[in-house]
Design brief:
The complex is a heterotrimer of chains A (272), B (260) and C (326).
Chain A: H1 2-27, H2 30-58, H3 66-86, H4 88-91, H5 94-98, H6 102-106, H7 112-117, H8 127-147, H9 151-182, H10 189-199, H11 209-216, H12 226-232, H13 241-270
Chain B: H1 2-15, H2 18-43, H3 53-70, H4 79-85, H5 87-93, H6 98-128, H7 139-165, H8 176-187, H9 199-206, H10 215-222, H11 227-258
Helix pairs in contact in B: 1-6, 2-3, 2-6, 3-6, 3-10, 4-5, 6-7, 7-10, 7-11
Chain C: E1 4-15, E2 29-41, E3 46-50, H1 57-65, E4 72-77, H2 86-90, E5 93-97, H3 109-119, H4 124-138, H5 153-165, E6 171-175, H6 183-200, E7 203-207, H7 211-217, E8 220-225, E9 228-233, H8 235-242, E10 245-252, E11 273-277, E12 283-289, H9 295-302, E13 308-314, H10 318-323
Parallel strand pairs in C: 3-7, 3-8, 5-6, 6-7
Antiparallel strand pairs in C: 1-2, 1-4, 8-9, 10-12, 10-13, 11-12
The chains are: A mainly alpha (272), B mainly alpha (260), C alpha/beta (326).
């Protein structure tokens, strides 16, 4: 047990160095880096603009007003933005299986998931996270006085982003793990990742029961989006529901890790 | 017919991936359903502007189908690859014009999409009861829809061609294509119809090329099309064709002078 | 005590069995990539694993490094099982794949080493000492601050080697390290590997298709074919067994008169020289065994067929040697 903890600690340290190096080497091209972040934010803003026009015209969607939805969309964008930066290798896991690069992962003295994640960190994809935070702050400034949101709520919002980040990371990991069986994952991602990402950017209450059930059980992405947002924005559920969100986030990561380990075992026995 | 053969060839090439594409279609359908649910909740049984609640759902359904004919096309029609590898010099040297050949091959891709992307989506939306078949009841409407869809598809091809051939003078940025999609979706009214936008924004977007690829064909299907939309689409189609042809000639001259 | 021990190693792959099977008609086929392979390698040995593509040498290396788990049999490296103790073993071995990079593509080479240092928990003193030595021996200074993607293949391979040795592994596995390198780069690499083996005492396991690698580096050669070991011994013993297949090419002024080839009384090929005339009619390809018939003697005999204007020795091809075992 101590051995495992120590290994995990070393792995995280390695990961930190990779992150710092990536940031340093990208920051050397300041102009390119800034421009790329600006483009991304413009891109996400175009999506948000359409949504805002829609809420403005309709008045509210499923009982959620303009700023409620802005907050929810921001939360999803910020939390899923984390995997785009830190899980970019898992997100593009195809190449490891198609070109046999996974062999190089197995010779490293760390857990395979950490080794893969530490292969590269895509700081340039930080635009989604930034945009998400900006949207959340904008919504907050408008909602805080009316709802009486305070420091505790702000901390809860940060916790919500963290829960969301962990859950999205779990989904990305699980999707990559499926690749050990299917070899290609780029056809799975629209259904398992991009679709749900878009879906939970809007209030969950607008979907049929079956869809809501899926997002709260087998693909528990609601616990990183709708559930915490509803609690923070006083839509009924108590703030203590965030405890559930944290528990679900932890559980989904453990489950994804299990699937991943199973996949690695398959790889080491079949080599394909 | 050379052009027909080219179109057939690129359609056949895609057939090999039909099953992978089917998996991808599920994703595409998912997005359609999400947006339909969103409008259903937003409209809440009331009409918004000129649209009835059912119109809004239909708008999304037709739009999802149209996207596969006008927007989700092979990036730059492969022209960027021709330029990068230097193959372009060879392509220009052929006896038949480059532009019509590339466009014919791309038309094959559109035909493939029509069969393997649009038909499954059509079937699903019809089963959901959100596809407005009743709106094209008369032969006149059908003719208008056919004309609008053809124009929209042509616009889609021409835009990709133009950006592709501009590769002679520009360098590809990692974000260009994704940014193009985001702008095309918003300015084309994919989620939020132009008709419902504030007047100033609506008028501005009507005269941009993006509306011709989403908003215009969908509106024609629903019968809420306007004269400015037709005019703008026609002018842009002609304009883009003219610019593309000119740029192609310029590129050919540049190749002769610099030898690639 | 042996540093690597393999006992009745066996690996069976099942092909054609997929979750979403593409060819449903094909029943799964069992392919025995490695069967009943046993060997012992002592510390400090420099061993070449040879064999044609698909012979099972890569599979064997993968089982020794923990990438693949054997179907049956047992392997230990430095006393550890690569399967049960993958992470612990990884700290004691170094692995280089000739065709893939294990460095960080977008980062400067120097950063790759910093990352590896953290990953392998290398103490600062050791790191500095080894880095100095490797930088000097491999001449890394010139490109230390360049991103890996900008390095030439030769530079990158030097970087890969340094990366695999930073943590002072007891065993170094090299899978076709010289593939694609030019002659000078190959020579430099061999020089480095020789001194690593001789001075530091690192055990080296090498697979290659380059006969010169084998001749200059390997004290011991293991030939694997169809998953089993067909030869185990020194280079001299290998030559004793299969001779020293060599070849040369000679160009004649006029199309040569093959009937005048001496010695064998007009026969086109004598027992120890096999001659074929190439398409142009004037060039002759001669294969012979250097042990029984040295090159000058071959030329002398060819001269009987006409005036030779040019000739060149052909690289001895490993495949030719390996083929003798089939």
């Amino acid at each position: 047990m101590r051995e495992a903890l120590k290994a995990a600690g070393d792995g995280c340290r390695t990961y930190g160095i990779v992150a710092a190096s990536s940031l340093r080497s990208r920051a050397a091209y300041t102009w390119n880096f800034t421009l790329s972040l600006f483009f991304q934010m413009l891109m996400y803003s175009a999506d948000v603009a359409a949504l805002l026009l829609m809420v403005r015209t309709a008045g509210a969607i499923g009982g959620w007003g303009t700023y409620d939805i802005l907050f929810l969309s921001g939360l999803v964008l910020a939390s899923s933005g984390v995997y785009r930066v830190f899980g970019s290798e898992l997100h593009n896991f195809d190449k490891y299986l198609v070109h046999g690069e996974f062999d190089g992962v197995l010779i490293r003295p760390a857990h395979t998931l950490l080794t893969v994640a530490a292969r590269s960190i895509d700081v340039e994809q930080g635009g989604a996270f930034l945009e998400g935070v900006v949207l959340m702050v904008l919504a907050w400034r408008h909602l805080a006085p009316d709802l009486g949101l305070g420091v505790v709520d702000a901390l809860c919002a940060a916790l919500a982003v963290a829960c969301g980040a962990v859950i999205w990371f779990a989904v990305v990991t699980a999707t990559a793990a499926l690749g050990f069986w299917t070899t290609r994952i780029d056809d799975l991602q629209p259904v398992l990742l991009y679709g749900p990402e878009t879906a939970v950017s809007y209030p969950l209450s607008i979907y049929p029961k079956a869809v809501r059930w899926i997002f709260q059980t087998i693909l528990p992405v609601a616990f990183g989006s709708y559930v915490p947002a509803a609690a923070i924005l006083r839509k009924g559920p108590p703030l203590s529901d965030l405890g559930w969100c944290a528990a679900v986030a932890a559980a989904s990561f453990v489950a994804a890790l299990g699937l991943w380990n199973l996949g690695v075992r398959r790889y080491t026995s079949t080599g394909s | 017919m050379l052009y027909l053969a080219l179109a057939q060839a690129s359609m056949r090439k895609n057939m090999a991936y039909a099953w992978a594409h089917m998996a991808n279609n599920v994703g595409s359908a998912l997005f359609g359903v999400i947006y339909i649910m969103l409008w259903r909740a937003a409209a809440h049984g009331r009409p918004l502007g000129a649209f009835s609640p059912r119109d809004l759902e239909s708008y999304i359904a037709v739009g999802q189908v149209v996207l596969w004919l006008t927007t989700f096309l092979p990036p730059y029609l492969g022209i960027d690859r021709h330029i990068r590898t230097g193959q372009i010099a060879l392509e220009f040297a052929r006896p038949v014009g480059y532009m019509p050949r590339v466009l014919a091959a791309a038309a094959g891709e559109v035909a493939y999409n029509a069969v393997f992307r649009c038909l499954p989506l059509l079937a699903m939306f019809t089963l959901m009861g959100v596809f407005p078949w009743e709106r094209v009841a008369s032969p006149g409407r059908a003719a208008a829809v056919a004309a609008a869809f053809t124009m929209a598809a042509a616009m889609g091809l021409l835009v990709q061609y133009l950006v592709g051939i501009a590769g002679f003078w520009t360098t590809e940025s990692r974000w260009a294509r994704r940014l193009y999609f985001a702008l095309a979706m918003f300015c084309g009214g994919q989620l939020f119809p132009l008709q419902l936008m504030p007047a100033g924004l609506r008028d501005a977007l009507t005269w941009l090329p993006f509306q011709a690829m989403i908003s215009f064909p969908v509106s024609v299907w629903l019968g809420v099309d306007t004269l400015p939309a037709w005019t703008s689409a026609a002018l842009w189609a002609l304009g883009l064709a003219w610019i593309s042809a000119r740029l192609t000639r310029k590129a050919a001259r540049r190749l002769e002078v610099q030898g690639g | 005590m042996a540093i690597i021990e393999a006992e009745r190693l066996r690996k069976v792959f099942t092909r054609g069995q997929r979750l979403f099977g593409r060819k449903r008609s094909d029943a799964p086929v069992n392919v025995e990539a490695v069967r009943d392979l046993s060997f012992r390698i002592e510390p400090g040995e420099f061993v070449g694993f040879l064999g044609p593509n698909g012979a099972g040498k890569s599979t064997t290396i993968k089982m020794m490094t923990g990438i693949l788990h054997p179907t049956s049999g047992r392997v230990t490296v430095d006393g550890l099982s690569p399967q049960a103790d993958r992470v612990r073993l990884a700290l004691r071995i170094g692995v280089v794949f000739g065709q893939r990079t294990q460095l960080w593509w977008d980062l400067p080479l120097r950063e790759s080493f910093r990352i590896l240092r953290a990953m392998y928990r290398v103490p600062p003193v050791d790191f500095r000492r080894r880095m100095e030595m490797l930088t000097e021996l491999l001449g890394l200074d010139a490109f230390m601050d360049m991103p890996v993607r900008q390095l030439s293949l030769g530079q990158r391979m030097r970087g890969e080697l340094a990366g695999a040795l930073l943590h002072g592994p007891r065993v170094l596995f090299l899978d076709e390290p010289t593939i694609g390198l030019d002659v000078t780069a190959k020579a430099a690499l061999r020089q480095f590997l020789r001194s690593l083996n001789a001075e530091v005492g690192t055990t080296v396991i090498l697979t290659t298709h380059d006969m010169t690698d084998v001749e200059e580096l390997c004290q011991r050669i293991l030939v694997i074919n169809q998953g089993t070991q067909v030869f185990d011994g020194s280079l001299a013993e290998l030559h004793e067994r299969v001779g020293m297949p060599s070849a040369l090419r000679a160009t004649f002024r006029e199309p040569p008169d093959m009937s005048r080839l001496s010695d064998a009384g007009g026969r086109r090929s004598s027992p120890d020289i096999r001659v074929t005339v190439l398409e142009d009619g004037r060039t002759v390809h001669a294969e012979f065994n250097r042990l029984t018939c040295p090159a000058p003697q071959v030329l002398e005999r060819l001269r009987a067929a006409g005036e030779i204007v040019d000739f060149s020795m052909q690289e001895p091809r490993l495949e030719t040697i390996i083929q003798q075992f089939y």
